Amino acid sequence: MKNETQNHIGHHSTARRQKAKATAPTVKGVRTMDASAQRQFGNTERPTEICSLFTASDAFLKTCFMHLLKENEITVKQSQRRIAKTERDFYKSLSQLAEYYDIKPMPTRHFGYPYNIRLALMDVQKQLKAKAENWNRIRLIEKVGKTYFTVEERCNTGATLFYIPVVPLYRLLRQKTRRKAGCLLLSVCSYLYRNAGIPYYRIEDSYLYWNYEMLIDWIEQDAEMEDYFVCKKELYRAELIGDVMGQKISDPRNLQFFEQRLNSFNPKNQFDKACFELAKKVFALYSQYPDENIFRNAHHNNAIDPDTMDENGYNDYNEENVVTMDKYISFFAESEGVVYDNLVSMINNEFNEYAEAQEPIIFKTFDGNSLLNESLDFENNLFKVLNELCRLLN
């Protein structure tokens, strides 16, 4: 994570035939001559004529033969109908997509099939890339005799560890001059934990809990290590302060007093102003998305891809090859010290074994049906908040 011999021929008296520079490809094999076309040698007498016993001219004239191209004509007509339907479906889907994203596709109907579809697809890709914030890819799908677009939108997390430190927040709350700013950030963290669902490292089912436990076991097994006592002290602090801050962050009163703390806060320096601006953004999220969870659209690449689902709506993929979101988004102790260095090193080594990272993804299908009211606006804003919060506390 962040955080392209020489070969000896011998002595021969006969000169070797010179090899051609290139061998011409064989187009056809050698054909034998038909018997009627071969030159006749010997007797010049004409052969005896062989005639049929009955006259068959009348029967021949009365016979009706089917047109040789009849079958091909049917195939062509079927193909033309299929192409016409594909084009109709395509432009219907394109019209729905253009209206949704407010784009103006280039005119392509006058081009022949399939160039018209190819050109239109390239044009739409270019426009969506420039306009849609979370656009990742667009695909043209043909399923059950219907052709339509699907657009994948994805939140790109940039291979970042979104780890929120609680030890710096604990210290802020204990400083008289910064206590009010600390209370604002405490309300922010309460929303992130209670409503947005960000894991806390002192809860046993969290990913980081077991990483800290593993570090404790390693240190206990190597009491002669150079930084043994420093690691012991940092781990003790992570455990003690982690439990204290866990109780504070989980307290629902921090959300009850959130608006009041905002209204009564008077920034006195640059740090206070940064805390105040961040708290306002988070309170707006809290007001607009009180019950939304950060993992609501957390999907593997193919987990909800409509082109990879079976008839029952399931996909076959291996979750063990994916870094799930709960592993790179979490509260933790602090972002400095020997324990932190070992923790991040251990996590990065593990993540290098995975094929990809889970991210918020939604698929929009433009098949003529009404679109679900889905977007990644909540996730976009929340990741910006997490970045700023980590920066302030670090």
Task: Describe the protein's architecture and organization.
- The protein is α/β, with parallel strands linked by helices.
- It has helices at 57-62, 70-101, 115-131, 167-174, 179-195, 207-221, 228-249, 253-256, 258-264, 270-288, 325-328, 338-351, 377-393, and strands at residues 135-143, 146-154, 162-165, 298-299, 322-323, 329-332, 356-357, 359-366.
- Strands 1-2-8-4 form a 4-stranded antiparallel β-sheet, with helices on one face.
- The longest helix has 32 residues, at 70-101.
Task: Tell me the series of helices and strands, N- to C-terminal.
Answer: HHHEEEHHHHHHHEEHEHEEH
Which band does the percent of strand residues land in? Answer: 5-15%
Please mark out the parts with pLDDT under 50 across 5 or more consecutive residues, or reply none: 4-44, 50-54, 65-70
What is the percent of helical residues? 40-55%
Shape: elongated
